[in-house]
Amino acid sequence: MIENRHDSVYVEKKDGIATLYFNRPEKRNALTYEMWKALPDLLDEVDKDQDIKVLILRGSDEKAFAAGADINEFKTLRYSFEGAKEYNNKTLLAEEKLDNLSKPTISLIQGYCVGGGCELAVTCDFRFSDTTGKFAITPAKLGLIYNLPGTKNLVDLVGPASAKDILYSGRILNAEEASDIGLIERLYSPEKVVEETYNYAHCLANNAQISIRGAKRIIREVNKGATEESEEIANLVLSSFDSEDYKEGVQAFLEKRKPNFKYS
Known about the structure:
- Helices cover 46% and strands 16% of the residues.
- The chain is α/β, with parallel strands linked by helices and 264 residues long.
- It has two domains: 9-205, Alpha-Beta Complex (2-enoyl-CoA Hydratase, Chain A, domain 1), CATH 3.90.226.10; 208-254, Lyase 2-enoyl-coa Hydratase, Chain  A, domain 2 (Orthogonal Bundle), CATH 1.10.12.
């Protein structure tokens, strides 16, 4: 597990919760090519670490989650078809790794959540924001076209009309409007957002991981259009009845105590 507070993106782990920090506070955590390159390996480490139950993404300070891409790279790395292709491949890989992570993911949003930052937040399972949250996806301000995976995630969250508004206008939504249209799930005061987000993460970490990861996988299949169980999914469901977590859950219920689930 990488833990280096000097890196522009790094992960810390405590009590079963991993936190991935975007760490360029002087630039509102604007995402560079090197940050996008680092994300897939960090996410792979989180997925493989059996001690980690939940991943939280956040900025290293309260002023920004991530304020989009570093604008300086638009005239260097992203100023041609080939350069943009290489850059976009890295962003798509990071997004794919985050989307396919087997563990629950939560974006803890304070301040600016714009462009690529909003793209990553939308890829997570949940988005918890405080009232300072500012949301925008701005390709229309730059003459770009937003990618399909990011667009699908956005449409799945807010519906086609609100997705069109966000992408066509490029305007900034405040946290209240983001909550109203379903872009974020929970809205807290600045004093409460960190505590409440980690409380929820610990709630998930204390539940049966076989159940959570199974549900996440099945919901992913539903989002792909599945309406009936494949043989693979049916076996996944039935295999839970042979798990130690299931036995512990039943025993705890009968003994009227909290279950002590172990990693499955």
